[in-house]
Write a sequence for this structure.
């Protein structure tokens, strides 16, 4: 994502999922960004998975699962192959 104004010699800092850019010839503008995680997984029937939920789940139908956050977990594909990803 481009900054809102042209800059040269700017300063930047990040904390967690946030990044801030300032200075560089623009004393009145600070650009702040939040990193967004978007993950999309196609799950086939009879597949077990666990993402950020407290327990493993199994789907009986094919479906796509989307997360707008950092994803940790797993997919246990049985007799098939991985058909999606981040």
């Amino acid at each position: 994502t481009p900054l809102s104004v042209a800059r040269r010699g700017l300063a930047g800092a990040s904390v967690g999922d946030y990044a801030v850019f300032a200075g560089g010839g623009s004393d009145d503008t600070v650009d702040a960004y939040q990193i967004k995680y978007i993950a999309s997984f196609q799950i086939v029937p009879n597949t077990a998975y666990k993402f950020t939920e407290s327990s493993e789940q199994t789907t009986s139908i094919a479906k796509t699962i989307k997360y707008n956050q950092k994803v940790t977990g797993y997919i246990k594909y049985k007799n098939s192959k991985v058909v999606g990803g981040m």
